[in-house]
């Protein structure tokens, strides 16, 4: 792992509201049987194409391409001349979730594909992110249930004191990561994707060099290249990470210690999820947040409710509006010492003494050594600049032909499933179908107990947009307290919120806080992706009693003025 | 406050505002009976059972706005949710006492409602007086501080680890801070016993005098391959006996239970003493027609003995000092309404046992009054919690001796058994039959030692055996 790109000042977050690696469920490891068309919203305004699903048209078998040329020939010309035939149709640098999703779709589309990986297969999500963290959160969720005597009593259960074995919990997380990594690797192999080991570097147009340190490099040519190198934890300067008492998510997921008291710098997805894990395992937590509010990326109303449930009643306190300028690991018989300054006045504010500190200030792109200067591309704070079609933009502002960048490395939306969706969108373009991914249809989730999920705009974002574009917005809300299934589970704490346009019923955003929120959001994200309007989806039937009825209620409580209401779909005879 | 016709005492401060929130169904809070109020206080409502204070999110109405019944006036943030609070009465919002963003304890006034415009000025004056006096308490409810609460640091921890790395800094863990706020413990006065001298939740629990909650997690060491079954928690699950009925404590019973648990933290010992009562019995027969009860006689005797032995009338409040009480107040345990209460005979050493002068309130009369009040549940707090010494008498049931538990906040308690004819041998070896009772005193050994109690009992027995002084 190379050094992180860490010269960013703390408040400057990657230019997306979502900054974590640890939220999405890892979806791509299952073998997808069919490809989904990812379309921009505008495309769906065309009624003709509205209900067409895209099925693979090509058989999955690898096609033999006319240009299966030799590697030696292209290596000889030193990149000065464009190759006319290629080793591969598509080379993907980075075998994380983004690269994996792109590779699978490329094979489906009949492209000869290779994937270059310099570290472990699966990238951050599988090895150091969403996957192992879900294992820890599964444990913390159960611990929480078993410790909640009041809750258990209400259900009529009696449980003796719950305990845990730290090493066994850590092993569960590690085993899960290995298993998913194995699945992912096998799925690529089974489809005939070549896995090339070593760090990939772009040496010229359509030309990639890869190899391990100390071994001779191989150079391959590809018609198209996708950069999918991902990100590493971002550590602000002044913070000394020793991997034992001052740690990043990379270390925390190994769960080598459960400190009595841990400070978590950053209250985004990563910080929140770890606070859930640590407090369930008996730690006390202190949040350090640069913004004035905890959970700054969330819809304010959801954040407020989440704070009441996830922060206030737990053994957590917090400092907001402060930067941790200096964090010294525990040594010489002293605890971890954290120096705080006021985020606005920069005046020294406080000094904390804790047992451990987790740095969860977001993630920095991992793009060093990619050889971008060979093709006149300048990164912006480490991120590879791209246009809406993920085409890499060079220093002069022009798209670089045949070069794309997806996932955390471009910083558009730092989520595993966003990277995968971007990869699929690129492959669609490569195979002759223009495609622009609607990022507003990509859901995000935080797997605390209970969970938080969202898609589209937050209320302030929607209000800003409405003001600029001159339309009204309306808000509908439903409570989990009114849901039978939630009450049966004794989990009535929760809120679902819909932001929509009352004039035409367009769904602008949906935010859910409550039991299984991460699973519930997809009805809303699919509606946004497919352009379904509130007045249409409210006729869709939900099984009773299910948590999904929270969304059913939500749609039904929305008031759309539009008189053009259509049924969900035309009746189809089968 | 006096000119407000609406009572401002805590007991009648049930909010007359009703919360209504979009999420939660409004919980109806009982109305306060109207006492011809012209200016009414708007109280911080209790929006949940666990709410102790609330934050004003926003005032929907401004000063001077005319309110009609059922209108939302203010949005209050509790520990659970934000709720609109609406008024039960028509009127004019005369003054806002607690501003937006500020916090106030449940039951404290947050605004004033005037009935007519004429009262607005008056209400404003009230509000000004209130906010100047109430402001500090509203933001930081440090109403009472239960004495100095420095925790006992037993063995000094190793010097390196005992002090925070930053000299002079008070380091407390998040949960310790939460507990301290909850139990109103001043964290700055605690000595931390945790790692690096930090104040932990255990330190706060100790200072607040509560039994620490069992640690949430039993961390099973990873060494054994098969995790040992966690031992069943004691006290939490008793075997269920079929057909048993669970009756929750009444408030009084809960208070007794709490006091009894608290008493466990005091190191007590007991000293017994036999006392001949023939003279006392004779006196009792004589004064009985005057309305004097045995309880009054015993209380008087104890009080007179206590005057000579002030240490037995003292209290140990902090484990570091004696608190000598200036008056001798004898609490007498009374079984009443399935409970137990200790009405207090104040200044029992000074008040005469029966009426020498017409019109003066005798100890006997006072006692009669107290018992009546106790039955009617009308005792004022100082009438049952100002005792400096407690008397408990089970003699009327034929109990010959028993052992009393020392109530928290007092130095000693006397358990009086029945007076019975007993065979007594005197110095010369002659036997005689005399009435004799056994008294047994339980005392706090931090301040009262064996010799103190023995001397006190000796004095007490002399008074009982020569009881003339009781009626003088």
Automatic annotation (TrEMBL), chain A:
<protein>
    <recommendedName>
        <fullName>Dihydrolipoyl dehydrogenase</fullName>
    </recommendedName>
</protein>
<keyword id="KW-0676">Redox-active center</keyword>
<comment type="similarity">
    <text>Belongs to the class-I pyridine nucleotide-disulfide oxidoreductase family.</text>
</comment>
<feature type="region of interest" description="Disordered">
    <location>
        <begin position="1"/>
        <end position="21"/>
    </location>
</feature>
<dbReference type="InterPro" id="IPR016156">
    <property type="entry name" value="FAD/NAD-linked_Rdtase_dimer_sf"/>
</dbReference>
<feature type="domain" description="Pyridine nucleotide-disulphide oxidoreductase dimerisation">
    <location>
        <begin position="442"/>
        <end position="553"/>
    </location>
</feature>
<keyword id="KW-1015">Disulfide bond</keyword>
<dbReference type="Pfam" id="PF07992">
    <property type="entry name" value="Pyr_redox_2"/>
</dbReference>
<dbReference type="InterPro" id="IPR036188">
    <property type="entry name" value="FAD/NAD-bd_sf"/>
</dbReference>
<keyword id="KW-0560">Oxidoreductase</keyword>
<dbReference type="Pfam" id="PF02852">
    <property type="entry name" value="Pyr_redox_dim"/>
</dbReference>
<dbReference type="InterPro" id="IPR023753">
    <property type="entry name" value="FAD/NAD-binding_dom"/>
</dbReference>
<keyword id="KW-0274">FAD</keyword>
<dbReference type="InterPro" id="IPR012999">
    <property type="entry name" value="Pyr_OxRdtase_I_AS"/>
</dbReference>
<dbReference type="InterPro" id="IPR004099">
    <property type="entry name" value="Pyr_nucl-diS_OxRdtase_dimer"/>
</dbReference>
<dbReference type="InterPro" id="IPR050151">
    <property type="entry name" value="Class-I_Pyr_Nuc-Dis_Oxidored"/>
</dbReference>
<keyword id="KW-0285">Flavoprotein</keyword>
<feature type="domain" description="FAD/NAD(P)-binding">
    <location>
        <begin position="88"/>
        <end position="423"/>
    </location>
</feature>
<keyword id="KW-0520">NAD</keyword>
<dbReference type="InterPro" id="IPR001100">
    <property type="entry name" value="Pyr_nuc-diS_OxRdtase"/>
</dbReference>
Automatic annotation (TrEMBL), chain B:
<keyword id="KW-0012">Acyltransferase</keyword>
<dbReference type="InterPro" id="IPR045257">
    <property type="entry name" value="E2/Pdx1"/>
</dbReference>
<dbReference type="InterPro" id="IPR011053">
    <property type="entry name" value="Single_hybrid_motif"/>
</dbReference>
<feature type="domain" description="Lipoyl-binding">
    <location>
        <begin position="39"/>
        <end position="117"/>
    </location>
</feature>
<protein>
    <recommendedName>
        <fullName>Dihydrolipoamide acetyltransferase component of pyruvate dehydrogenase complex</fullName>
        <ecNumber>2.3.1.-</ecNumber>
    </recommendedName>
</protein>
<keyword id="KW-0809">Transit peptide</keyword>
<feature type="region of interest" description="Disordered">
    <location>
        <begin position="124"/>
        <end position="150"/>
    </location>
</feature>
<dbReference type="InterPro" id="IPR003016">
    <property type="entry name" value="2-oxoA_DH_lipoyl-BS"/>
</dbReference>
<dbReference type="InterPro" id="IPR000089">
    <property type="entry name" value="Biotin_lipoyl"/>
</dbReference>
<keyword id="KW-0450">Lipoyl</keyword>
<dbReference type="InterPro" id="IPR004167">
    <property type="entry name" value="PSBD"/>
</dbReference>
<dbReference type="Pfam" id="PF00364">
    <property type="entry name" value="Biotin_lipoyl"/>
</dbReference>
<dbReference type="InterPro" id="IPR001078">
    <property type="entry name" value="2-oxoacid_DH_actylTfrase"/>
</dbReference>
<keyword id="KW-0808">Transferase</keyword>
<feature type="compositionally biased region" description="Low complexity">
    <location>
        <begin position="126"/>
        <end position="141"/>
    </location>
</feature>
<comment type="similarity">
    <text>Belongs to the 2-oxoacid dehydrogenase family.</text>
</comment>
<dbReference type="Pfam" id="PF00198">
    <property type="entry name" value="2-oxoacid_dh"/>
</dbReference>
<dbReference type="InterPro" id="IPR036625">
    <property type="entry name" value="E3-bd_dom_sf"/>
</dbReference>
<feature type="domain" description="Peripheral subunit-binding (PSBD)">
    <location>
        <begin position="171"/>
        <end position="208"/>
    </location>
</feature>
<dbReference type="InterPro" id="IPR023213">
    <property type="entry name" value="CAT-like_dom_sf"/>
</dbReference>
<dbReference type="Pfam" id="PF02817">
    <property type="entry name" value="E3_binding"/>
</dbReference>
């Amino acid at each position: 792992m190379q050094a992180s790109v860490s010269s960013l000042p703390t408040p400057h977050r990657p230019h997306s509201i979502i900054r974590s690696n640890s939220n999405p469920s890892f979806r791509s490891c299952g073998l997808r049987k069919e490809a989904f068309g990812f379309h921009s919203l505008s495309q769906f305004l065309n009624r003709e194409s509205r209900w067409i699903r895209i099925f693979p048209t090509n058989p999955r078998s690898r096609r033999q391409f006319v240009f299966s040329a030799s590697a030696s020939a292209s290596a000889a010309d030193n990149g000065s001349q464009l190759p006319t035939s290629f080793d591969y149709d598509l080379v993907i640098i980075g075998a994380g979730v983004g690269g994996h999703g792109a590779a699978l779709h490329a094979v489906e589309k009949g492209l000869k594909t290779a994937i270059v990986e310099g570290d472990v297969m699966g990238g951050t999500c599988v090895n150091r992110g969403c996957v192992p963290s879900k294992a820890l959160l599964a444990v913390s969720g159960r611990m929480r249930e078993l410790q909640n005597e009041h809750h258990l009593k209400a259900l009529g259960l009696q449980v003796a004191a719950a305990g845990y074995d730290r090493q066994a919990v850590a092993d569960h997380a590690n085993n899960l990561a290995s298993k998913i990594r194995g699945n992912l690797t096998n799925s690529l192999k089974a489809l005939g994707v070549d896995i090339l080991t070593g760090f990939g570097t772009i040496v010229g147009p359509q030309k990639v060099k890869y190899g391990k340190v100390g071994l001779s490099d191989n150079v391959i040519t590809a018609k198209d290249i996708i950069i999918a190198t991902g990100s590493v934890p971002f550590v602000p300067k002044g913070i000394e990470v020793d991997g034992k008492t001052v740690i990043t998510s990379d270390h925390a997921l190994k769960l080598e210690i459960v400190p009595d008291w841990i400070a978590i710098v950053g209250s985004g997805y990563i910080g929140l999820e770890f606070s859930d894990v640590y407090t369930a395992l008996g730690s006390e937590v202190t949040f350090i947040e640069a913004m004035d509010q905890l959970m700054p990326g969330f819809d304010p109303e959801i954040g407020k409710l989440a704070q009441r449930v996830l922060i206030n009643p737990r053994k957590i306190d917090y400092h907001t509006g402060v930067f941790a300028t200096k964090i010294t690991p525990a040594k010489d018989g002293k605890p971890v010492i954290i120096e705080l300054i006021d985020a606005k006045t920069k005046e020294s504010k406080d000094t904390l003494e804790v047992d451990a500190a987790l740095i969860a200030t977001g993630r920095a792109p991992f793009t060093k050594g990619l050889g971008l200067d060979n093709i006149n591309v300048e990164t912006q704070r480490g991120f590879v600049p791209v246009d809406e079609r993920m085409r890499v933009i060079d220093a002069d502002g022009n798209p670089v032909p045949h070069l794309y960048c997806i996932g955390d490395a471009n910083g558009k939306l730092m989520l595993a499933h966003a990277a995968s969706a971007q990869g699929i969108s690129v492959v669609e373009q490569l195979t002759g179908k223009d495609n622009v991914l609607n990022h507003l249809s990509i859901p995000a989730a935080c797997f605390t107990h209970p969970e938080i999920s969202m898609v589209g705009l937050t209320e302030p974002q929607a209000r800003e947009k409405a003001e600029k574009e001159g339309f009204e917005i309306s808000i509908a809300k439903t409570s989990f307290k009114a849901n039978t299934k939630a009450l049966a589970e004794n989990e009535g704490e929760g809120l679902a919120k819909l932001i929509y346009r009352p004039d035409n019923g367009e769904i602008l955003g949906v935010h859910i806080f409550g039991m299984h929120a991460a699973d519930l959001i997809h009805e809303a994200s699919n509606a946004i992706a497919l352009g379904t309007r509130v007045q249409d989806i409210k006729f869709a039937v939900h099984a009773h009693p299910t948590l999904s009825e929270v969304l059913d209620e939500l749609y039904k409580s929305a008031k759309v003025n539009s008189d053009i209401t259509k049924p969900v779909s035309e009746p189809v005879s089968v | 406050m006096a000119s407000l016709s609406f009572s401002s005492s805590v007991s009648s401060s049930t909010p007359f505002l009703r919360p209504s929130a979009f999420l939660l169904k409004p919980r109806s809070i009982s109305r306060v009976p109207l006492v011809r109020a012209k200016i009414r206080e708007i109280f911080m409502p209790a929006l949940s059972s666990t709410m102790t204070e609330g934050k004003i999110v926003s005032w929907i109405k401004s000063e001077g706005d005319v309110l009609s019944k059922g209108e939302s006036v203010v949005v209050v943030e509790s520990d659970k949710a934000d709720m609109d609070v609406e008024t039960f009465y028509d009127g004019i919002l005369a003054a806002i006492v607690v501003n937006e963003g500020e916090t106030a304890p449940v039951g404290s006034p947050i605004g004033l409602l005037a009935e007519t415009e004429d009262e607005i000025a008056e209400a404003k004056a009230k509000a000004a007086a209130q906010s100047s006096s109430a402001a500090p308490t509203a933001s930081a409810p440090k109403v009472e501080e239960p004495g100095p609460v420095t925790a006992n640091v037993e063995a000094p921890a190793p010097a390196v680890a005992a002090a925070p790395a930053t000299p002079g800094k008070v380091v407390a863990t998040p949960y310790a801070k939460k507990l301290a706020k909850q139990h109103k413990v001043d964290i700055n006065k605690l000595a931390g016993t945790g790692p690096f001298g930090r104040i932990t939740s255990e330190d706060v629990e100790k200072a607040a005098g509560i039994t620490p909650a069992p640690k949430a997690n039993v961390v099973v060491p990873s060494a054994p391959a098969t995790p040992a079954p966690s031992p069943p928690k004691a006290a939490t699950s008793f075997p269920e006996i079929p057909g048993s009925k669970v009756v929750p404590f009444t408030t009084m019973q809960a208070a007794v239970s709490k006091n009894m648990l608290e008493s466990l933290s005091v190191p007590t010992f007991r000293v017994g003493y036999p006392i001949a009562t023939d003279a006392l019995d004779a006196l009792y027969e004589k004064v009985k027609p005057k309305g004097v009860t045995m309880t009054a006689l015993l209380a008087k005797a104890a009080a007179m003995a206590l005057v000579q032995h002030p240490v037995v009338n003292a209290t140990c409040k902090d484990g570091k000092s004696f608190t000598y009480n200036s008056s001798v107040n004898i609490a007498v345990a009374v079984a009443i309404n399935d409970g137990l209460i200790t009405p207090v005979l104040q200044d029992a050493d000074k008040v005469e046992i029966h009426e020498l002068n017409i019109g003066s309130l005798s100890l006997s009369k006072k006692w009669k009054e107290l018992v009546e009040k106790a039955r009617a549940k009308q005792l004022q707090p100082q009438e049952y919690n100002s005792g400096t010494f407690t008397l408990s008498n089970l003699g009327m049931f034929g109990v010959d001796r028993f052992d009393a538990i020392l109530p928290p906040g007092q130095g000693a308690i006397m358990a009086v058994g029945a007076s019975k004819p007993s065979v007594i041998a005197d110095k010369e070896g002659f036997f005689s039959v005399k009435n004799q009772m056994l008294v047994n005193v339980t005392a706090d050994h931090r301040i009262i030692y064996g010799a103190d109690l023995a001397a006190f009992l000796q004095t007490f027995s002399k008074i009982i055996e020569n009881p003339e002084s009781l009626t003088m």
